[in-house]
Amino acid sequence: MTSQQPLHIHILGICGTFMGGLALIARELGYTVSGSDQNVYPPMSTQLEEQGIRLMNGYQAANLDCRPDLVVIGNALSRGNPEVEAVLNRNLPYISGPQWLAEHVLQKRWVLAVAGTHGKTTTTSMLSWILEFNGFKPGFLIGGIPLNFGISARLGESDFFVIEADEYDCAFFDKRSKFVHYRPRTAILNNLEYDHADIFENLDAIKKQFHHLVRTVPSEGLVIAPSCEQHIAEVLEMGCWTPMVKTAIGAEADWQAELIKADGSCFNVHFAGTDQGTVTWELTGQHNVYNALSALAAARHIGILPQDAIAALHQFQNVKRRMEVIVKTNGLTVYDDFAHHPTAIKTTLDGLRKQVGKEKILAIVEPRSNTMRLGVHTQSLAESLSEADQAVVYQPENLGWDLRQLLQYANNIQLCTDLEAIIQTIKAEAGGTCHILLMSNGSFGGIYQRLKTEL
Predict the structure, then answer these.
(1) What pLDDT, on a 0 to 100 scale, did the predictor assign at position 421?
(2) Most CB atoms within 10 A, among 153, 214, 318, 415?
(3) Is 175 labeled as ligand-binding?
(4) What predicted TM-score, i.e. pTM, was given to this entire model?
(5) CA dist list (Å): 434 to 357, 387, 437
(6) In terms of CATH architecture, what is 108-313?
C-alpha cells in the first residue's frame, strides 16, 4: 500500500451484501475499515466482525468522529440521511463502492462479470469455485455467501477476479448501473426482466444500461448468453463488438445441456457438438442448468477444460439462502431461499416440484423488494406460486400494497399479517411429509432463527 492511499475507510451501508464484500477486500488490502448500517444482523455482521471490522448500528454524524480518510457510500443511502449530510458538511472525501472497487482492485485484472435479473449470485459462486478447484485462486465479490468458501469476497492471488455485476445504481451521486465500472473481459448475461421499479422507469431503461455494459467488453473478450433470452438478444442487437457464445437446453447452441433428470440434478454437457461430460449435483431447476452452462463457458474462456470445470461442479455446494435446508425433521423439510422476483419464485418452485413429485409444498413469501412493494408484479407473483399446494404471502404493516389483489389470480394463496401465525402454520405441518419453502431477500422478521429453535 503506497503512502498516497487512504488508511482508514468508513463504509455507509456496510451490511449490504455488496458493501460487506467490499469491506472484506479493503481489510485484506491492509486498510482500517469501519462502517455503519441500520440493519446489522447475521450472516454479514458476523462475517465482518470476525475480520476485525468495527460496526456501528444506525446512521449518525458521530460515527464520523473517527475522521476516516475516505467514506464509501452505498446506494441505499440518500440525501437527508444524517451521516450522509455530515460527510458533505464536513467536506470528507467520498466515493461509490463500484468506483472504489474499479480503481483499487479491478484495474489490470481479468474481470469475469455475471449480469442478469436472476442467477447472478449462484453463477458467480459456481464460476469462482470452478476457478478455485482448478488452482486459479481467483478474487471474487459475490452477493451472498457461497458455501464452498464461507465468505462473500476476497482479493485472490491471481490475475482473475469474478464479480456479481448488478444493474442497480451506484450511489445517490452516481445513477449509473454498478456494472458499468467493472469493464469485464468475460461477460455473462444470464437474462433480463423488469425489476428495480424504484429506479428504472421501464424495461427499455434497463436494456440501455445492459448495453452500456456490452460496450465496455473488449473485442478480444467474450459475451455469454442463453439463446432463449429475447431481451438479451435485443440488447446485443443494439451493437456488440465482442465474440459471443450461446447456451441452450435441448436445442442448438454453442453450449448445450441434455437433461437426464427432469429436475436438472443430472445433465449431459455438449460444446461445439462434442460431448464434454455429465454434471451430477444437488442443485435443481433448469435455471441452474443455464447457470452452469454459462459458468462452464466462462471458465473455458480463461483456459479451463470443460471436463475439469464439470469436475468442480460435482463439488459445488451452492450459496447460503439458495434452497438451503435449515430444518429437516420428521418428514418436514424447511428451505431458505432468496427468491423475490416472480420468475425466480416460479423456477425455484418448479425445480422443487420436479424433485419431490406429489409431496406437499408450502410456499411462504415475503414480498420485500422495492419492485414488489410497488405492486408491479401482482398477477405474475400470484401465478408464480402455482406449483405450491398452499402459499402464504406475508403482509407487514408498512408494505404499502394491498395484497388482496393477489387473490383474484390464484386460489391457493392465503394472506397473513402476523409472523407468529405463519410459524404456527409451519409447525402444524410437523409429523407429515411436507416441503416448506421460505422466500425473502431480507431477514423475514427473524423467522429463520425461530424455526431452527422451535422445530
Answers:
(1) 83
(2) 153
(3) no
(4) 0.80
(5) 11, 14, 10
(6) 3-Layer(aba) Sandwich (3.40)
